[in-house]
Amino acid sequence: MASERRKDTALLAARAGRYREYAPPPALRRHFSRFWSHALHDGPPAQVAIVPDGYCDLLWIGGRLAVAGPDRTAAFPALRPGTTVIGARFAPGAAAPWLKTPLSALVGCSVPLADIGWKDTAEFEARLGNCPDPTDAMALFARLLEEAARDADEPARDAAVIFAAADGGRPASGLLGRLGMSERQLRRRCHHHFGYGAKTLERIRRFQRFLDLCRRAGTMPLARLALEAGFADQAHMTREVGDLSSLTPAVIFDQLGMPKRPD
User: Fold this and answer.
1) What is the pLDDT of residue 206?
2) Taking Cα atoms as reference points, which of 208, 186, 209, 181 lies closest to residue 197?
3) Which single residue of 2, 31, 52, 206 could bond 71 by disulfide (Cβ 3.0 to 4.6 Å)?
4) 101 and 42, same structural domain?
5) Do the domain assignments include residue 100?
6) What's the predicted TM-score (pTM) here?
């Protein structure tokens, strides 16, 4: 019963406040795909669903730096109203070398950066803690990561190719010859760089295509949405979307089609 209520009442994170994305500075573009900020609205707390996207993020939240590992299914964190989160989304293949940690160890977890043994954590937290304005904190966050990038390992190029295939609706297994690896090596690389296997990554990126279509589909019927996103049919979409988000396609379509609340 609780699970069914969650499907009707949970709010996608993008609807739970003001979410903005920014291009990373040029020096960081090989390591990060996006910088972002999320200011939650004041008022009664909502049940917020953070849905899987195949990425790993660095966060500045509550005075601490943390790593949000990749998710297999939606997370429902307890977030205080009025909280502002600043994040940097790793580029595909960049997180594991930067963190020196396989992402399979971080699936479904939000871990303090200090617990991973990142040597600059205490210094960076102290500097960010002296910067209460969110806009200034975002600028400082970027500068600190530029400093850290000087010692960071290069992203894995084969991981970026695997991600691009999944993102475009092509099976990663079709890349085996091009990448010069066996199925076992592909599975090992995917678990290292994404936290799970290629098929799970493909499911998650197809789900993200569905979300993108919901944002711009207007009055497109759900059956057409399913085919455009790459599902076999509407029933397949309903199962997959429910498994990954704990929401129904109709609820997601309604939420993403709502006019945004004024800032």
Assistant:
1) 96
2) 186
3) 52
4) yes
5) yes
6) 0.91
